[in-house]
Write a structure and sequence with these properties.
The protein has 16 helices and 13 strands. It has 369 residues and is of the alpha/beta class.
Length: 369
């Protein structure tokens, strides 16, 4: 099978779509090696070769970060000096190493470089041009990147769908179980804690308008800064909704999905401040519907179109209106609507969520060129 190298500096735990892809490729399509500064081996299948640059976590102190980055560059480029000829593809889930395209070829790499362009970050369009293939998770983003980046060929599409061949979800987490035992419904937010980008303040204000029978559970992404969590707790306290909101410990992907499975409804709101926000490609759209859990998303074009097809399975709201958010939550938690929403969420995933099939089509396009 072809050999694929996934190099990074930061831990790929912050990029679940890359971990999904690594596991899927190694499951059927390629032999995979992952190199990163610090690794969580439990996130990867046992067949994957994982090589940590260091056994310590990537530091936060500026001086130590510079030192760690220099160490990573030295480690990575020495590894390429020894092994570049052995790989058919270098897949950059994040373009952490400048000049890696040139350095790899100087050291004998004859294969193709693939760049996974997750966010619509225009300052990184240069990397899309440097790569032999550019992979993007959302179709509108794909076309925007193609035209604005003036790319020689159209990027390839790979939606952010979970891949779970080796993870078992057979026990409800204690934090969620205690809420369910009280007869309360759970709306789950998981991911980036950012008041400006993710409309968290509007969501918290919406909770002031909702009955105690509905609990908001917030699961931050791994490595969330404690100062940000402090601001979140302060805001919850100020709004006097501590009895309605629970912040739980982050979970490494793909194990965070065990919490999603037992939620009643998911929510993920983006502020319409950039094209990247408006044409979002949220993992959670597929992560929640994978388990037949309805999800509330912003009323942006792609989501509105889906909500008209999968009524109550995908719900859209004005993300900057606390009242509208609260009304949508109340409406979905009507028992008939919730039951219908679960059916529609499952239908959406059944029609759109076959990740292995998506990867197979993508992989065939890559290896055929």
């Amino acid at each position: 099978m072809p050999k694929v190298l996934f190099p990074s500096i930061g831990n790929l735990q912050v990029l679940p779509p890359v971990i999904n892809l690594i596991n899927c490729l190694s499951f059927k399509f390629a032999n995979v090696t992952v190199i990163s500064y610090d690794l969580n081996k439990e996130s990867y299948q046992k067949e994957i070769e994982v090589i940590p640059i260091s056994q310590t976590k990537y530091p936060k102190n500026l001086f130590l970060r510079i030192k760690a980055k220099l160490r990573a560059y030295g480690f990575m480029y020495y590894y390429l000096y020894k092994n570049a000829k052995n790989f058919d593809y270098i897949w950059l889930g994040t373009w952490d190493y400048k000049f890696i395209d040139h350095v790899a070829r100087v050291f004998g790499f004859k294969g193709k470089i693939i760049y996974h362009f997750h966010e619509l970050e225009f300052e990184k369009l240069q990397y899309c041009k440097k790569a032999d293939f550019c992979v993007i998770p959302e179709e509108n983003r794909l076309w925007i990147t193609y035209f604005l980046g003036k790319l020689p060929k159209k990027p390839l599409l790979l939606p952010n769908i979970p891949f779970l061949p080796f993870v078992e979800f057979d026990k409800i987490p204690d934090e969620l179980n205690s809420i369910k035992k009280e007869g309360r419904k759970i709306i789950l937010y998981q991911g980036l804690i950012n008041f400006e980008k993710r409309c968290l303040n509007e969501l918290l204000e919406a909770m002031t308008l909702l009955p105690d029978a509905i609990a908001l559970v917030i699961m931050p992404m791994p490595s969330t800064d404690n100062s940000i969590l402090g601001l979140l707790r302060d805001r919850i306290s100020t709004l006097n909704i501590s009895s309605k909101v629970l912040i739980i410990e982050p979970q490494l992907p793909p194990h965070h999905l065990n919490y999603i499975k037992y939620a009643d409804v998911g929510i993920g709101l983006y502020r319409p401040s950039t094209l990247n926000q408006i044409y979002a490609a949220p993992n959670r759209l597929f992560e929640f519907t994978k388990f037949s859990v309805p999800i509330i998303l912003p009323d942006f074009p792609a989501f509105k179109s889906l909500s008209s097809i999968f009524k109550y399975g995908i719900i859209t709201v004005n993300p900057e209106s606390s009242k509208e958010i609260a009304n949508a939550i109340l409406e979905i938690f009507n028992s008939n609507n919730l039951d219908h929403g679960k059916v529609q969420a499952k239908l959406f995933f059944d029609q759109n969520g076959n990740y292995e099939n998506q990867v197979e089509k993508l992989w065939e396009k890559i290896i055929s060129q």
